[in-house]
Amino acid sequence: MVIKKGEFIAIFILFLGIGFIYRDVIFHNQIAFSSHFLATFYSPWTTHTYEGYPNGIPNKPIGGNDNIRMFYPYRTFINESFANRELPLWNPFNFSGSPILANFQSAVFYPLNIIYFFLPQISAWSLLVIIQPLLGTLFMYLYLRLFIFQKSAAFLGALAFGFSGFILVWSQENAVVGQAALWFPLTLYAAEKLITTASRKNFILLVFALAICIFAGFLQVSFYIFLVTFLYGVYRIKAKRHMRKYSLFLFTCAYLVSLLLSAIQIIPSIEAFYESARSSSSIESVLETYLLPLRYYIRVLAPDIFGNPATYNYFGQGFYHESIFYIGIIPLVFAVLAFIKYRTNKIVLFFSWVSLFSILLGVKSPVTDWFYRLPILLVNTFTPSRVFFVASTGLAILSAFGFSYWLEHDTKKSRRILQSTAILLALVLIFIVAFYHLSVVTKNENTWVRSISLIINPHFYLTAENAKTSLRNILLPLSMVLSLIPLTIMRKKQRVAVVIIVFLLGVGQLYFLNKYVVVGKREFLYPDHFIFTDIQTHQNMADRFLSFGLPIVGDVGLEKHVYSPDGIDPVFPKRYGQLVYAAKNNGKYTDTIARIEVSLSEYSDNYGVIKDPRVHTLMSLLGVTRVYNYEKEYENPEVLDSLFPQDTFTPLWKQEGWHAYENTRAYPRAFFADGYIVEKDPQKIIDQIFDQKNDLRKTVILEEEPSDISSTTDGVTEGKATVSLEIYKPLRVDLEVDTDVDRILFLSDTYYPGWKATVDAKPSKIYRADFAFRAIVVPKGKHTVIFSFEPLSFTIGATISGVTILFLTLFVVVNKVKTAIKH
User: Fold this and answer.
1) Which listed site, 278, 330, 337, 587, has its alpha carbon 20 to 30 Å from 381?
2) Would you kindly state where each structural domain of the chain is located, as residue ranges?
């Protein structure tokens, strides 16, 4: 496609705007990462005072949680694995071991990640953040140009999508949501091209566009893209009177081939899903937080009417980024025009219905509450408000058609619709904010004020400051929407009006991005800390650590190459999470546990957690040798002695409020047990584990009778039973062992399909032991024991993907050969 002068100018201005917003990243060696937030609020760095910042590090409280706790550590581990010529299949640093490639969000095979091979990790990360709105705009422009002759109209719609609230906010909050979303218009473009011209080139384009959506790493967004694009394809094929059957066949084949191409990611992810807590976790809290009352839809007019977390004044329900679908108030006006005047247009009709249904699916109502509780695969694990992504896309497309209609039919009727819509939206904003102030003044004492407040107020505790925030934050949308009234009157200078309208939209969306954008300094990116130095210096090869008072949460251990029983991951092994949860829940077994996080310590109740003997038992079983504690209330020596009795925890040092202890009762990572118990009932296994009469160092609990053991040592406490850990890597654990009788070898790493064991190169069955870990039978004598991770799910997926790539390659080559022969 040849870029014309007008398109070049638009692209140049867009890059200029992005360059200005990210000027500190481009010119001052800063990073598009919330490192300030990390150093300010995340343990252990939050307790440290940084030179030059006596009042603390300035920060925006956004973009912190997922990127800090999960995505950046993922990327570090994945990049290092590839550098070591290993596949990033297993994370040994968190959850006592957990799959990582099988976690959809690891995005191991996402094509744009090739940037990491050429740039330093944080530079590549920053670049991927910056280009998201630009790529989204480009892809949407390509799609809209298939139908819209006026470039300015296509550009307005493209800008409304690429710089929509959803893309901009998620580009800062999460490494994969925006990356998955930006490919949506390209799938629509490829689908339309294939339906219009059934060529091999268009077939392969659709296959790869769909596959990239999967590899981008966010299942919910990928699901929406697949579903809507498929419905779109069927709808468009139905509208074609010729070659319907062939087009539908080719279109369906493209879908099937894209899934086969993505099998290397899909099949391990399916296995991980069914092994995880998400397959059975409760959806109650999700529905309560992320099904939004209708009053929250006012944010489609003014995204910050309930404040913005970037300015510390957000007072809406749930997280800001989970309920945003703002595309700009100007495009919204033109979307209304398209809906009114272009209803016979097939594209407009389709995306009108798609937008309506996606909006309704996010509204809190008995119908949506019932729908999300249905036992439909994946749907009951989704966050409902993220469906607004589909609405944003649909409205952006409608806005381009509406703008195009105005350019082609600048009549009194079309101007009247635009002006009436603009005035109506302005009045809605003014009424809402005026009522917020009225509610505060009357304190809802008046009956009718109280009745209306229940309908439109974001919270019953609306304050005067909240009302002022709403007033400030509607001024820009108000001025922009009201500017359409004089601009649409400029009949003789329509070209000037077009430029001004597109310019206002661009400025408004860039202002939105500038407010929300996260930029940090490199020195605050997981800086060195004496706790990690202590762990790395004094612990053995695979010993674990734990922190209390200010827990070191998430997958920070993955970033720092230290081993923690805690972690955050959407698909951590369910059995392991159940065991940790039971340790803090009076030993009760349950299917209802946290969906994404495991933490043996807690902020809210560290006194109770530390003193619980079940927690002590699990800490010892997990091989937690180093324990750290930070809490001002613990400065009392008597309190500390009661929480960390010296017969178990030997005090080591104190520094900056942190206390370090050695857990003298910690078990080795691998050891021989003298005997075993067979128990199948989950609750009874947990009871046995936490029964203080049982010595788990001597007796292991299995769920089936081992068939390959010829003798037991029950009751025998003496004899030769040595275990030496020689190699501990993500995909391999090597041990040298020596035993005078057949024994059970226990390894406190998570039991998971795909792990294999050999004794002197001969296969040995792995048993699930102590509810969530691994054990094998070792015959008497000296042996080399090797545990290796070779998941069948990955092998099958890789084979299917490999064969599909070969097929596509032949598909292209054969076509080129035929073309060459003809000529």
Assistant:
1) 587
2) 5-60+103-182+280-516, 183-267+791-823, 530-663, 689-790
